[in-house]
Every structure is written in structure tokens, then in C-alpha cells.
Amino acid sequence: MATTRSTKKGTFRRRFAPYLPLALAALAQIGVVGSSPGTGGGAVEAATPPVAVHGPKPTGGPFVPGCAYPFADIEIAHSIDADCGISGDATDGPNQAQNQAKNNFCAAGNAITVTANDLVQLQAAVVKANIPSGSHDQLPPNRSVLKDLAKTSKGEALGEGVKVRLVALVEKAHYSDVPSAAERAQGKGGEGVNCNEFLNETNDIHIPLVQTPGANECTSVTAEMSPHARPVGWTPAALNVAGQVVRVTGQLFFDGSHKLCVNDKGVPGNPARASLWEIHPVYALDVCSGKTITECPVDDESKWHPLEAKSGAASPSP
Questions:
Q1: Helix/strand/coil (H, E, C) string of the chain?
Q2: Average pLDDT, stretch 177-195?
Q3: Domain spans of the chain?
Q4: Higher pLDDT, 151 or 58
Q5: pTM score
């Protein structure tokens, strides 16, 4: 009998003992067991949360656009494409729906030519229909009410998800929601649709569009370049060329999280503009060879060339 017990013990040691350190290490890694200084090991500890390098940990990735990107020939992969999904970090229905609408790269058909006034008229239609807006807590519970809200001068229906294009000048494009070092230390900055990431590369480029150089941004309408697959040549520096006339193509989106200007002044924490309707995300951006908007007919392709860069180029620095 003694020989039998010894054999069983020996068998256990040979079969399982070599794996015991690995098992203990794995348990320590997930915080089930661990060691504290001076305890000699074995003390139970809570798992230590990962330290964020440049912002809160993204959620909901990877990003799946549901179609080929409109700029697929020059798209560039970014870190946010792998770890921030189409709903961003939103947890409630209205904000998830808004983020999904904001991330729509799939509006089809020919782009309808619009003016800044068309976006202002869409804003008036929202007010008339009593559609809620003004903060993340005041969003349309059902975004279907944002369809077919207005018409162009040619009778074309406008609303969220319609593919449009607009000719304008750019007034101080910039990366949006990118915090300072002090703000980062306080956990401030970032935008929910982009999982509150803090880098230039992982945030939208905000593009105020005006009809005259130096115009008050409260008279502007907005376009936004999403960080997802954003081409390397799409930067504020490329957009902010003095006197440059651009043609912006993308889908109409209603950004109900913000407030409009009051008495020609922007409300703190809100971009200054004349309408909460945006071209967002941008599908294409072309630059005109003419020097004024008058010299740049929207349909004269001989006047336009794309703002683009070769595929595979390095991403811009944060």
C-alpha cells in the first residue's frame, strides 16, 4: 500500500507540478492571487486597472463602416479603427443612435448641391418640428424625424443621411476635442463618438465653412472629417490655405448635442455656427484652381482637384 501511495504522489508531481508556477502566474496576472511586499506571497489583491496612455480605454471596436470608405483609394489605418466601434462609447439609445448616424460613410447616389442657407433652413425646420437638441441629454429619441425636413431650391429633399456637396471657404479648421496636458490630467477632453481619445489622430477635424474670408464663425456651417481611415493629407494645415476654395462632399447629419450662437457669439463649450446641421463625415474634399467662389462652379470638374495623399503614407503626428 505504501508503494502504491508513493507511486501516485510521484505521478502527480511528474504530471502536474511543472505547470503549477504557470497556473499561479496566470492567476496573479488577473488579480486572483498575488503578493504584497513583506508577505512572502499568497496575499489576495484586487486587480490593478490598466493605466491609460493617452485617454480612457476605447470601447466597442473594431470600427466596421458597413461599406467601402468613399475615399478607399487613399484611406489610412489608424489605432482608433481597431478599438472604437460605430457607436463610440455611448451607452444609452439616443447617443448610440447619434454616434451611428455620425459615422455613416454609406450614403449613396449622386451628391445634391446645397448652400449654407439650405442648412440654416434645415435648422429652422428642426425648431418648427420641436425636435429636441442642446445637449447629450436632449437628443431626438427617434432619428427618423430628421428625414425629409426641407427641400432645395430645385425641390430636392434634404434630411439626415442625404449625400450633399457644398462650395465654400475654410475658416480656421482644427482638430476638435483635443485637450491640453492639464486637461488630460483631469480626465477632460475627447468626444464620445471617438471613445474619448485624446490625440489629433483619433479625433475629428472641425471645418467651419464660410462664404467670405474672415467671416464671423456664427455665420458658418460645419463639416467634420472623421478620424476613421482618414487620409494622411487631410489635415488642418492643408485646409487652412488662405483664399482656398473647397468643395466638400459628405452626408447631412444633425448634431443635436450642441447649442447655436447667441447674439452672434458662440456659447462656451459649443462650436460657433449658424446651424446644427453638418456635412459629417466628409466623403471627399476638392480644391478649386480659382481664387473666388464665383470662379469655382460646383459642376465644372476642370476646376477641381482632390485634397489627397498617396495611400500608405505615415499618419500625422499627435
A1: CHHHHHHHHHHHHHHHHHHHHHHHHHHHHCCCCCCCCCCCCCCCCCCCCCCCCCCCCCCECCCCCCCCCCCHHHCCCCCHHHHECCCCCCCCHHHHHHHHHHCCCCCCCCCEECCHHHHHHHHHHHHHCCCCCCECCECCCCHHHHCCCEECCCCCEECCCCEEEEEEEECCCEECCCCCHHHHHCCCCCCHHHCCCCCCCCCCEEEEEECCCCCCHHHCEEEEECCCCCCCCCCHHHHCCCCCEEEEEEEEEECCCCCCCECCECCCCCCCCCCCEEEEEEEEEEEECCCCCCCCCCCCHHHEEECCCCCCCCCCCC
A2: 87
A3: 1-48, 72-306
A4: 151
A5: 0.79
